[in-house]
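Recall from the previous chapter that SMILES is a line notation for molecules. Here it describes magnesium ion.
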Amino acid sequence: MGPSGSELGARLRDRDLSAAPAVLNLVETQTPQAREEVAELLRAVAPGALGGEAPGHVVGVTGPPGAGKSSLLSELVAEWRRQGRTVAVLAVDPSSRRSGGSLLGDRARIAFDPEDRGCFIRSTAAGRRLGGLAPATRAAAHALAAAFDVVVIETVGVGQSETEVADVADTVAVVVQPGSGDALQFLKSGIMEVPDVLVVTKADLGQIAQRARRDLHAALRSAGARDTPVVAVSSVSPVSGFDDLVAALDRHRETLDLPAHRAGRRRASALADFVAEHGEAGLRELGGPRAAEKVLAGQDDGADVASLVSALEAAR
Ligand SMILES: Nc1nc2c(ncn2[C@@H]2O[C@H](COP(=O)(O)OP(=O)(O)O)[C@@H](O)[C@H]2O)c(=O)[nH]1
Ligand SMILES: [Mg+2]
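With both inputs in hand, we obtain:
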């Protein structure tokens, strides 16, 4: 057993970034004892213990395989580091699943300086579904936001995954490559929730990237979201667009009512964790989603899965 949850929480509160690997190891350990420690950890970094919301900006980066997310993150991380911000990236890697590896073809790894103590990057296994967020990833993101200036969650998918990542992120960026109609169709049909920031990759391809940007603007207008920023980036030489992307992400964060937003997210995460563990049947036993919401609404600060579990036990 590594350090305890409360020890790790204390280190994160002191913004000790070297706690990150042990935090990831703990949240990924599937023993009842480790679960207890994770609950301790989350209590140790809850707003009550921190004296306010965790300072880190939690950014979800999602999009279809091959869109250029990992390449983009190499440059985005470098840009944040140039600005002196510390960064953690949790890349939810579908290739860790038993069958998923080959379908994604040629993929980049996020490049970073292994000597850089201000940057932590970890690939974690995907949940059961493509784009599904494991409870471990949610817990890690919540915890690391106490210590890092920016916490990124990279997930694969389009259409559903941005809603899942929205359960934990402050800001969701959807990444699309030029010439892929999916995002456009999803936006128009309302399958996809409007993201906070849209990113068109591969701007070095020229015309076709410009066209993608115009089409997305048009789709956003017809979805009633004309103010959603669309940023074009190139992650290959000549690298471009990353100052704009950082600015767009920052602007979104500045417009958020963070405590209200995070309280809502904590409730959504707790509910998702509960369903992951106890299934829809457990939720019915509890009295359904409404009843669960009620339990969670009763506790503003530490809304966590434990309160739902005790409510379930009480209902039995
Ligand atoms: N021309 C060009 N190719 C890119 C760019 N970004 C990524 N790629 C390529 O697109 C492919 C998929 O990129 P990757 O970052 O692995 O996408 P991910 O699956 O979304 O993480 C790779 O072959 C990259 O080299 C870019 O800005 N311009
Ligand atoms: Mg990738």
